[in-house]
């Protein structure tokens, strides 16, 4: 798994990335290798390694990430047709970067999971 520094650099604008939204809690940017016409990553501004590290203190950040993902879906006009929100966790879940991130995918009919 790659370390968290890539996403930390994106938040701090030390790395070129297409940031489409940022507030005090989260940053949203285009995935560098999009798997759909719309593929946005939403990450917390504070480092959380994976969904295993969601706890009593930081759980509200997840609600905000979800809320922002939906706002972006509406703004990108994919909310009516639909979209997918994914969080991969660790090796079996397919998490490549050691920094909690939410994928927002849409803009085409996505393949069923099974
Ligand atoms: P995951 O497999 O859930 O860990 O997803 C990691 C995602 O980060 C992949 O979809 C990558 O294409 C994406 N990614 C890696 N590096 C960058 C980057 N510098 N800018 C934007 N997206 C990236």
UniProtKB/TrEMBL annotation:
- The active site is formed by 101 (tele-amp-histidine intermediate)
GO MF terms listed in the record are: catalytic activity
Task: Give the top-rank taxon of the lineage listed in the UniProt record for this protein.
Answer: Bacteria
| Matching Gene3D superfamilies | HIT-like
Q: Known Pfam families for this protein?
A: HIT
The chain's coiled-coil residues are: none
Residue ranges of the HIT domain?
Answer: 6-114
- InterPro entries referenced in this protein's UniProt entry, alphabetically: Histidine_triad_CS, Histidine_triad_HIT, HIT-like, HIT-like_sf
Read off the PANTHER family from this record. Answer: HISTIDINE TRIAD HIT PROTEIN
Q: What is this protein called?
A: Ycff
Name the source organism: Buchnera aphidicola str. USDA (Myzus persicae)
Lineage, broadest ranks: Bacteria, Pseudomonadati, Pseudomonadota, Gammaproteobacteria, Enterobacterales
Designated gene of the protein: ycff
């Amino acid at each position: 798994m790659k370390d968290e520094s890539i996403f930390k650099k994106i938040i701090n604008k030390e790395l070129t990335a297409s940031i489409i939204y940022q507030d005090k809690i989260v940053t949203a940017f285009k995935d560098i290798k999009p798997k759909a016409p719309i593929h946005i990553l939403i990450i917390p501004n504070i480092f959380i390694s994976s969904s295993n590290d969601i706890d009593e203190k930081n759980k509200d950040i997840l609600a905000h990430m979800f809320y922002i993902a939906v706002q972006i879906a509406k703004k990108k006009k994919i909310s009516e047709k639909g979209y997918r929100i994914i969080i991969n966790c660790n090796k079996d879940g397919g998490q490549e970067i050691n920094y909690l991130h939410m994928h927002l995918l849409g803009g085409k009919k996505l393949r069923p999971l099974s």
